[in-house]
């Protein structure tokens, strides 16, 4: 989603003069970036970030399943979550998908 919107987060091991013109090289309009240190650190950071995303998605799914079991409206739950500290693009996109799956499972 971020890349489709022209936004890229880059964590790389490279020469600073290469990082300076990275947006033009990959065709994105906005970047956040950093130098990760030793070779391999960027891959390890990506692994940790992926683990966090997976954990958050699993926690969201469990929360939505609990909400369904106790009779809460899924759309209202997502609306409230998006006003809270857990608001994120992950909650917005995965939450609406999970809600659709839960509704389909009831039919």
Output the number of helix runs. Answer: 5
**Number of domains as seen in the coordinates:** 2
Give me the strand/helix succession.
EHHEHHH
Classified in CATH, the superfamily of the largest domain is N-(1-d-carboxylethyl)-l-norvaline Dehydrogenase, domain 2
| Mean pLDDT over all positions | 76
* CATH T-level fold name of the largest domain: N-(1-d-carboxylethyl)-l-norvaline Dehydrogenase, domain 2
Low-confidence stretches: none
Using DSSP, what is the number of strands?
A: 2
Distance between the ends: 30 Å
Largest sheet, order of strands side by side?
A: 1-2
Determine the fraction of residues in helical runs and give it as a percent range: 55-70%
Q: Please identify the structural class as seen in this structure.
A: mainly alpha
DSSP strand content = 5-15%
Which radius of gyration do the C-alpha atoms yield? 18 Å
Largest sheet geometry: 2 strands, parallel
| The CATH C-level class name of the largest domain | Mainly Alpha
- Overall outline: elongated
CATH architecture field of the largest domain: Orthogonal Bundle
Could you name the key traits of this structure?
107 residues, mainly alpha, N-(1-d-carboxylethyl)-l-norvaline Dehydrogenase, domain 2, 2 domains, two-stranded parallel sheet, 2 strands, 61% helix, elongated
């Amino acid at each position: 989603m971020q890349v489709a919107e022209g936004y890229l987060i880059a964590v790389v091991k490279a020469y600073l003069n290469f990082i300076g013109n990275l947006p033009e090289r990959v065709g994105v309009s906005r970047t956040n970036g950093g130098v990760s240190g030793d070779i391999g650190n960027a891959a390890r950071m990506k692994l940790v970030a992926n683990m966090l995303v997976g954990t958050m998605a699993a926690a969201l799914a469990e929360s939505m399943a609990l909400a369904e079991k106790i009779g809460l409206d899924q759309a209202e739950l997502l609306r409230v979550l998006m006003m809270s500290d857990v608001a994120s693009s992950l909650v917005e996109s995965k939450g609406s998908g999970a809600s659709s799956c839960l509704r389909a499972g009831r039919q």
